[in-house]
C-alpha cells in the first residue's frame, strides 16, 4: 500500500467518523422496540393551576389508523389567547395514554414559510411502519421567540414525548419518503453594523430528518 493511498484512506475514514458524529438521534429504540428519550431534547412545559378552565373545548380530533385518536383541546374561557389549544390528549383503542398541557399552547401546524395553520391539519404526521407513527405540533410565535416544536412517537400502543424545544421550522423537504425539517432555535433579528447600518443577524440553522424509522438532529 503506497503512502498516498494510506493518506487518502486515513482522510476518508476521518470524514466518515466526523459525518457520523455530526448528527444524532433524538431518541433511542431499544431491542424490544420500546422508546427511550433523551433529556437534552425535551424542555419543561409550563402549566399553572387555574379555575374555570374545565371542561376543555375540543378544537380538533383526528384518528390515526383505527387505533390512535389525537384530540387538541382549548382551555375554557381562553378563546382570545394567541394559541389555538393548550392540551393534547392521545388515546389508543379508546384508552387515554398521554395528556400534555402547556399554558403557552400550540397552534395548528405551520412553518415560517406558511405562517398560519388551519384546523384541518393540527399536526404533521409521518408513518415509519406498522403501528409506528410520529406526530409534530407547533406553537405560536410570541414576540421574537422561536415557537416550540413538540414531537410525539406513537408505537405499539404507547405515546412518548421525544422532543419539545423552541424550534422554528423554516422549510420542509419531502423526498422519496424521507422528510427534513430545516430549523433554527432562535429567530433572526435586526442589529447595526460598525457603520450604523441595519443588518439582519441570522441564527445557526439545523435539520431534523425523518428517515429509516428514526429522527436525526444535525
Number of helices: 1
Strand content: over 45%
Number of strands: 17
| Low-confidence runs | 5-21
Query: How are helices and strands ordered from N to C?
Result: HEEEEEEEEEEEEEEEEE
User: Main beta sheet, described?
Assistant: 5 strands, antiparallel
Name the assembly state.
single chain
**Which term fits the overall shape?**
globular
Strand order of the largest sheet: 1-17-16-13-12
Taking all residues together, what is the mean pLDDT? 85
Count of spatially separate domains: 1
Percent of residues in helices: under 10%
Name the structural class: mainly beta
Distance between the termini: 36 Å
- Rg calculated over all Cα atoms: 20 Å
Q: What would your notes on this structure say?
A:
- The protein is mainly beta and 218 residues long.
- The protein has one domain.
- 9% of the residues lie in helices and 49% in strands.
- It is built from one helix and 17 strands.
- It has one helix spanning 3-21, and strands spanning 24-25, 27-29, 35-37, 57-64, 68-74, 85-92, 95-106, 124-129, 132-138, 148-155, 158-166, 168-175, 178-184, 189-192, 198-201, 206-211, 214-217.
- A five-stranded antiparallel sheet has the order 1-17-16-13-12, with no helix packed on it.
- It is globular, with a radius of gyration of 20 Å.
- It starts with a helix and ends with a strand.
- 24% of the residues are buried.
- Mean pLDDT is 85; it is low at 5-21.
